[in-house]
Design goal:
Elements (H helix, E strand, L loop, with lengths): L1 H24 L7 H10 L1 H15 L6 E8 L10 E5 L10 H12 L5 E5 L9 H10 L8 E4 L2 H5 L2 H8 L5 E2 L3 E4 L6 E4 L8 H15 L11 E4 L5 H7 L4 E4 L8 E2 L2 E2 L9 E5 L2 E5 L16 E8 L1
Parallel strand pairs: 1-14, 2-3, 3-4, 4-5, 7-8, 8-9, 9-13
Antiparallel strand pairs: 2-14, 6-7, 10-11, 12-13
Helix pairs in contact: 1-3, 4-5
């Protein structure tokens, strides 16, 4: 409830109190009906903000929404009917427990997808990460063609080297800077590493290099049979440049606050949902957890992609 309290007191300090002080200072001035209506309206803002914060904290952030899509892939991928479920940005920690993770994986499996793709920022707590690795490994049996994981920025912040070593002893497909062909198909899954470059030019160059690294083992003619997993949504551009038909990303949390399916504060080039570039598609996942314990108009999601010819 910490952030809800912050919002509440900010509302008091910057909206409500100035209005009250103004009334006290100018109480001897004749009544202006328009001003009175305005000041009365101001008193509603703190209540609305606190109410919205409570809704976002106690309800929306805890209710996973399932979204179902069909994506056309070339016949050469030999993957028609395969369903990939995507989760992202779980942010294990204070606001997302190990038990929450177990429940999420069970909830994903209820729809019987073949593959689970995890697009980063799952392992976000140094103390909890080792147990989370075990939880993820236990869930492999729920997905017939496996769990595929690519790294986000928060794994790097939380001792990725140790987590990577633990994952080596599991059945999870860790595709960090590499690709694997899915058993029984000609479908490739490639995982790009996260770019930490700050300026635009360096970011574009590093992003392109990391994408090339991820697909280096895929024959050129089979890039059309590839799905790219990447944490940052701007890798959608790189996937499209290579002719990759689908890129799955996360990172943005859908903006945390949304209205009519759009981010209220569009911080990123791509913030949520579908991006189309020529014949290629990209998807920006809204995330399943958050490091801000509140979501409004942007519920956590489980996305399902059924591949068709």
């Amino acid at each position: 409830m910490f952030w809800a309290s912050v919002v509440f007191f900010a509302a008091l300090l910057f909206i409500f109190l100035p209005a009250v002080i103004s009334c006290l200072i100018y109480r001897r001035i004749p009544v202006d009906k328009n001003k009175r209506r305005f000041l009365q309206g101001l008193t509603l803002y703190p209540a609305a903000m606190v109410g919205g914060s409570c809704y976002g904290y106690y309800y929306e952030r805890k209710h996973q929404v399932k979204n179902y899509y069909e994506v056309k892939m070339p016949q050469s991928a030999d993957a028609s009917g395969v369903t990939i479920a995507q989760i992202s940005d779980v942010h294990l920690g204070k606001f997302f427990s190990l038990e929450d993770l177990r429940r999420l994986l069970q909830l994903v499996a209820e729809d019987e997808p073949d593959i689970l793709a995890v697009t980063g920022d799952l392992f976000d707590d140094v103390q909890m990460n080792p147990e989370a690795v075990k939880v993820l490994d236990e869930a492999v049996d729920l997905f017939p063609k496996g769990i595929y994981f690519c790294i986000g920025n928060h794994e790097t912040y939380r001792n990725w080297g140790r987590t990577a070593k633990l994952l080596q002893n599991t059945r999870v497909h860790v595709i960090v800077g590499r690709a694997e062909k899915v058993t029984g198909t000609n479908l490739w899954l490639a995982g790009a590493e996260y770019s930490f470059s700050r300026d635009d030019e360096s970011f574009e160059l590093e992003k392109a290099a990391l994408t090339q690294k991820a697909v280096k083992d895929i024959p050129q003619e089979e890039l059309q049979n590839t799905i790219l997993l990447a944490h940052h949504p701007e890798y959608i551009d790189n996937g499209a440049e290579l002719g990759i038909p689908l890129t799955l990303t996360g990172h943005t949390h859908g903006g945390q606050l949304g209205i009519f399916g759009f981010a209220v504060i569009p911080v990123y080039k791509y913030n949520r949902g579908w991006v189309k570039q020529g014949k290629s598609l990209g998807y920006v996942h809204c995330g399943n957890g958050s490091w801000l314990p509140m979501r409004i108009g942007c519920p956590p999601e489980i996305a399902y992609f059924r591949l068709v010819d």
